[in-house]
Design brief:
- With about 220 residues, this protein is α/β, with parallel strands linked by helices.
- The chain has one domain (about 25-220): 3-Layer(aba) Sandwich (Rossmann fold).
- Helices cover about 40% and strands about 20% of the residues.
- The chain binds S-adenosylmethionine (SAM).
- S-adenosylmethionine binds near residues 36, 108, 135, 154 and 157.
């Protein structure tokens, strides 16, 4: 009986903490990185690639990379790894590894996450990942300078998501796209309906999504 009471109290406390966290957006601390290192079911790297449709040579921005769950693959897709460069050479790319080498800008509030991701990129021999620390509501990139922005399990952590979306719109090129990934269970989960509302309010057009209501990648564009 006592054990059941204790269990009930623990469950209530967990629920209370989750609800509080949901109502008070804040960045996932580096000390809790095991959450972001765990497998991301449904919002897999393959699914991201299908929605993002990255092209060699592009300049992509990943806001909130965490420990780089998607970063290393994105860097390879735009053509930055030794494997990717070998592929270009194998295809007879006359420009060598220059013209098709894209860049992944990673941008995070917490230096520890940037350092963690950069050390993983170095281990894999990737030289096209560029870290910058800051807040998503004030991006240090020029207007219309980014081909695509990726934001997975991040939007709900930002206290003023509309300000971040407006900044993303500013830095995106006219034909640029924004990919938002979300996974239910994250205390800051943003529903697809809420994302579509926020996107419309900040001038984004919803194009499509892959996945389901509980785990999805949505593709948005910013018509000029
Ligand atoms: C839950 S983690 C997601 C990590 C990764 N995208 C993934 O799916 O594995 C959220 C990340 O967003 C970052 N973040 C939260 N608020 C931010 C903000 N206002 N500006 C920039 N980064 C932020 C956190 O520091 C953390 O790296």
């Amino acid at each position: 009986m006592r054990a059941r009471t204790l269990l009930g109290a623990a469950a209530l406390a967990t629920l209370g903490a989750a609800l509080w966290w949901r109502k008070n957006p804040s960045a996932c601390p580096y000390g809790q990185r095991f959450w972001v290192e765990a497998p991301h079911p449904i919002i897999t790297r393959e699914r991201l690639r299908a929605v993002l449709r990255p092209a060699p040579g592009e300049r992509l921005l990943e806001i909130g990379p965490g420990t780089g769950y998607y970063t290393l693959e994105i860097a390879e897709w735009v053509g930055g790894g030794s494997a990717a460069r070998g592929g270009d050479a194998a295809r007879g790319d006359a420009a060598g590894d220059g013209a098709n080498t894209g860049t992944v800008e990673i941008f995070d509030l917490q230096q520890e996450f940037l350092d963690h991701t950069m050390s993983r990129a170095a281990e894999r021999g990737l030289q096209n990942v560029v870290p910058t620390r800051g807040d998503a509501t004030a991006l240090p990139y020029e207007d219309a300078s980014i081909d695509a922005v990726v934001l997975t399990a991040v939007l709900g952590e930002i206290p003023d998501p509309a300000a971040a979306l407006r900044e993303i719109r500013r830095v995106l090129k006219p034909a640029g796209r924004l990919i938002v990934g979300e996974l239910f269970g994250d205390p800051h989960f943003t529903t697809l309906a809420s994302l579509r509302r926020q996107a419309a309010e900040t001038g984004f057009a919803y194009e499509d999504h892959s996945g389901n209501r509980l785990a999805y990648f949505a593709r948005l564009s910013a018509p000029q």
